[in-house]
Amino acid sequence: MLTFAVRRLVLAVPTLLFISFVIFMLLQLAPGDPMAQVPLTVPPEVKQKMREALGVGEPPLVQYWKWLVQVFWLEPKVFIDWLTNSSTLLGWLPDTQLYQGELRVISWQTRSPVMDIVIQRIPQTLWVVGMAYVVGILIALPIGIYSAYRQYSVFDQSGTFITMIGFSIPPFFTGPLLIVIFSVQLGWFPSIYDTTHVVNDWASFKYQLQQMILPVMVLALQTTAQISRYMRASMLDNLNQDYVRTARAKGLSEAVVVTVHVLRNSMIPVITVIALNVPSIFGGAIITENVFKVNGIGQLLITALFANDLPMVMTLTFIFAVLIVLFNLIADILYGLLDPRIRYD
Amino acid sequence: MTEPVQATPTPIEALADKGPLEPPRSQWLDVWDQFRKHKGAMFGGGFLLFITLAVLLGPYLWQVDAQKLDIRNKDLRPIWNLLWDSGAKVAWNRPFGTDQLGRDQLAQIIQGGRTSMAVGWAAMVLSLIIGTTVGVLAGFVRKADGLLMRLTDLFLSLPILPLLLVAVTLFRQPLREAFGPEGGMFVLIVGIIAITSWMPTARIVRGDILALKEREFILAARSIGTTPFRIVQRHLLPNVLSPIMVSATLGLATAIITESALSFLGVGFPSDFPTWGKMLADAVQRMQQFPERVYLPGIAISLTVLSVNYLGDGLRDALDPRIRGR
């Protein structure tokens, strides 16, 4: 198991390098010029110097190498400095001061380090999208279990119908639909997610809950649809097994048979699916974030794309790719850990 | 002297053959019978047929130019608003109303449906071709297997939606110059959706081919000197048809949704060219005053995708020989 994990981890490095190379070269083809917004009165040679200051003058391979150095060498240094300097967890350690003011990955839009902006945006995304994922799973598991236990019952049929709807209605339709119903006609919830809102007392906490409900509903519908389908199928596979009949024959109660014997075995594939979908928490909510004006990672990517901010786009897509590869690995390892029949060696 | 035995003796009554009562059943007849039992699938198939015919024949029945501006008759409400609001601004020759530039909504829905369905079908077919080719090659040619599957894994670990957005913004200009504004966008969107969605098909097909090629009938075919190409064409492809058909329905659904999502985010077709996603995106700004402009394209997208999904569900059941006949 350990050798398998190590081997996969080592294999992930060339994969990620290749992906980053492909994305980088793709972005090199982009027609935009970071100096397009600079006034025409600025002389061309000054513009050229500004371009070089942003790192555009060099050949693509050199640029790629510098980006690699910045992301894999300088940014970790900055992160370690931050950990030992201002974080509460490791703040007691002596200040390391590894970062000596070298050029980091700079966004063309804001002229500030890309990683700083990403760190600013992550909490909003994690709160809304992560919460939606948790809520979706919590709803999906009981639905999946019960509709498998009562296969072809009214509950199962309607559950199937609702999951089909969840699959089929895209978030850019459910979003406006819910806004029209709940914030325009009923006036219960705000339609725009206010990220500057500070929770410091009961009333502001209530407001925070209210503004989170709509985006969480939209995202949770999709998660629920997917996970409950998997849960149902996996329960159905296990419910007809011999060991279930044995458990019943021993005289165990139905509750014990279903929740202890069947559920624990059925959770194995479901947990890997849950792990596989975690990267989409960080990157997949682009549309929902756009509809509800949540300024998270997805919205950051869209604005960066429209503003032709290539370093930002490059770094963000690379972060998404890292997450996908990482959680693929985690899912495989989890599968091996949870199911003793699976042996990778 | 015994009588000669008749050439065809009359059989004993009890042993007489009642004759084949039914003609022999083909596999596809069985599939169809099982498919018919799935109500949702029948409904989905029917609706898909209806919407396809509607967008194909619609422009001939409803001969209004979807892009014609008619500012005098802008912001007309749909005709059914009369039911609860007798003072609503409606016109009988504009049954679905008009938008803020006076373009006819019904014609736009039909025109947008044409685009969405065309993109969906084309992207689905293209991604099936890529996926099946890669899957068959990886399963059948042992040397190519490792390389092709690594490639598939690589594509699976790409962040799809961000890459779609990147690619559309990057290649919009050159393709527009090559194929014109609409044609270039069509080629671009179809190509990009296909390139980023062939991986599941390839994996399924490879798995099936790997199992099939060890079977006896392939050995028999090989022993009588069938060329590898003919083996793939005559023996392997027909046997992997059912998983391909199921992933085709899934591919159609995702292609329609992806195209609408791109249009919604504003990176799809040019602004005067209606698609369902673009109509929805344009209407969101004023959805408080004119909610029907959000509902109509949204319902069109959702119902189409829902019917395709149900169709796929029914096909999966009908094509699975373990379920069929139960």
- Strands of chain A, count: 0
Tally the helices of chain B.
Answer: 12
Instruction: List the domain count of chain B as a whole number.
Output: 1
CATH-scheme architecture of the domain at 118-338 in chain A = Orthogonal Bundle
What report would you give on this structure?
The complex is a heterodimer of chains A (345) and B (326). The termini of chain A are close together. In chain A, helix 1 packs antiparallel against helix 12, helix 4 runs antiparallel to helix 5 and helix 5 packs across helix 7. The longest helix of chain A is centred in the middle third of the chain and has 38 residues, at 202-239. Chain A has a domain at 118-338: MetI-like fold (Orthogonal Bundle), CATH 1.10.3720. With 345 residues, chain A is an all-alpha fold. Chain A is globular and about 85 Å long. Chain A has helices spanning 2-28, 44-53, 60-85, 114-149, 154-168, 171-185, 202-239, 242-249, 254-283, 286-291, 297-306, 310-338. Chain B is mainly α. Helices cover 65% and strands 0% of the residues of chain B. Chain B has helices at 27-37, 39-61, 105-140, 142-156, 160-179, 181-195, 199-212, 216-223, 228-236, 241-264, 276-284, 292-319. The A-B interface holds A 15, 18-19, 23, 26-27, 29-31, 161, 164-165, 167-170, 172-173, 176-177, 179-180, 184, 279, 283-284, 286-287, 290-291, 301-302, 305-306, 313, 316-317, 320-321, 324-325, 328 and B 40, 153-154, 156-159, 161-163, 165-167, 169-171, 173, 253, 257, 260-261, 264-265, 277, 280-281, 284, 287-288, 291, 294-295, 298, 301-302, 305-306, 309-310, 313.
